[in-house]
Amino acid sequence: MLTLYHTPISPNSRRVWITLLEKELEFELVEVKLDGEQFKPEFLAINPFHHVPTLVDDDFNVVESLAILDYLEAKYPTPAMLPKDAKDLAIVRMVQLVSINELLPAATTFLPQMLGLPGGDSEKMEKAKQKIATVLKFFENLLDDRPYFVSYNLTLAEVVAGTIVPILPSIGISLSEYPKINAWCGRLIARPSWQTTQPSPQSMAAFKSMVAARMGQNVPQN
Fold first, then answer.
1. pLDDT tens-digit map of 149-176
2. Which of 31, 65, 80, 200 is least crowded, fewest Cβ atoms below 10 Å from its Cβ?
3. Terminus-to-terminus CA distance in the chain, angstroms?
């Protein structure tokens, strides 16, 4: 039995959750609250790095989201979410790694604004906007006439980039200059797997309170 330890607000967790749904696998979903639960001995026994997501398949523990995605693809290859063609495979890997190494850190710069909290370094934010624009242009050029990166079907490029790019408008980054990316986002967020894994208002509120507490700020109560 597959068990996914996750946090709803985490794009790293969400990409694994989406993959499990898209592959129509049976699994148990266990939420790990990042207010200290990740440091409890029972979770550290599963993942000594106290990170989410973590996948447990019977007695085998898999940590790091990209490793989990590869594990699921290798063990459950239907539907296929990785291409065989060398060029297409390279594109999927580029999209994954650029999303994680370039796009997500830049987007995280705007986290206080996304949560409606004060703060933020204007110089860092401007550099982050430039980095995001570079990534979006890169992605726009990679997309061809197919509805998804390198395929007519969903790939692992989608489940990684597609848990980050759609949130960009919420931090003031318009996708209007990137028509292929904009249409691609629309296709993704219409899928049941994206809708099912969308963080709830309750999850957002809890995350906002946690971040505010770490920043030493009070969160207004609605």
1. 999 999 999 999 999 999 999 888 999 9
2. 200
3. 41
